[in-house]
Design a protein that fits this description.
transferase; Asp/Glu/Uridylate_kinase; 7-stranded mixed sheet; EC 2.7.4.22; 7 strands; pyrimidine biosynthesis
């Protein structure tokens, strides 16, 4: 089973806690030990936002801000690589072709951001499409996709399942809001729709949730299911 896991920086390293990074490395190692080919894309999180906000105040332009964010994602990726040790690629991949090559070498392929104007959400979707992944998992600080921002709307309802096209429709209005509240950005949603990627959006605060979702399809988040998409064989073998 080939899986790409997108780990938000605020999930992996909200306060640069070595135990949390180690726990994520253990979860990824568990997947690899179970026979999964694993690619990981790491976000920037709060540290990236602090750098970006500081740079904005001193007059940096948007491309410069994006590059600061990309640099922070790659620092977070290096943290994870250090925790994974010999199982992982030596350094963060700088494009999806390099990341795919690491998978072919039977390494856990780790990358951060790639280019200005593109979030790690979209990088993960492009990576998953480029390697024909069986599953794309977004480990976020939100427990799935909602019809409104659950932090600001007590009546927000979670979607248990969406088609990729429905995901685009749900994310589109959220992407227009200041501070975009969608757990997956619009470009990522469009790439998921284009590729027909089976995806899961879940609360990744506990790394074991990613293991359960990948190996058994068990989670409390949102399934994004292509119209003609079957469940991964691994999920059905044990039933």
């Amino acid at each position: 089973m080939r899986v790409v896991v997108s780990v938000g920086g605020s999930v992996l390293a909200p306060d640069l806690d070595p135990e949390r990074v180690a726990a994520y490395a253990e979860a990824i190692e568990r997947l690899a030990a179970d026979g999964c080919e694993v690619g990981v894309v790491v976000g920037g999180g709060g540290v990236a936002r602090e750098y970006i906000e500081t740079a904005r105040k001193i007059g940096a332009n948007e491309v410069e801000l994006d590059r600061l964010g990309i640099g922070t994602t790659r620092l977070n990726a290096r943290l994870l690589i250090a925790a994974l040790g010999e199982r992982a690629s030596l350094a963060p991949a700088t494009d999806t072709e390099e990341a795919a090559a690491a998978l072919r070498r039977d390494e856990v392929s780790v990358m951060g951001g790639v280019t200005p104007g593109q979030t790690t959400d979209a990088v993960a979707a492009a990576f998953a499409e480029s390697v024909d992944a069986d599953l794309l998992v977004y480990a976020t600080s939100a427990d799935g996709v909602y019809d409104a921002d659950p932090n600001g709307d007590p009546d927000a309802a979670q979607f248990a399942e969406l088609s990729p096209a429905d995901l685009v429709e749900v994310v589109l209005p959220m992407s227009r809001d200041a501070g975009a509240s969608a757990p997956v950005d619009l470009l990522a949603a469009k790439l998921i729709d284009r590729a027909g990627l089976r995806s899961i959006v879940l609360d990744g605060t506990d790394p074991s949730a990613v293991v359960d979702a990948v190996l058994r399809g068990d989670h409390t988040g949102t399934d994004v299911v292509p119209l003609d998409g079957d469940e991964p064989n691994r999920w059905t073998e044990g039933r």
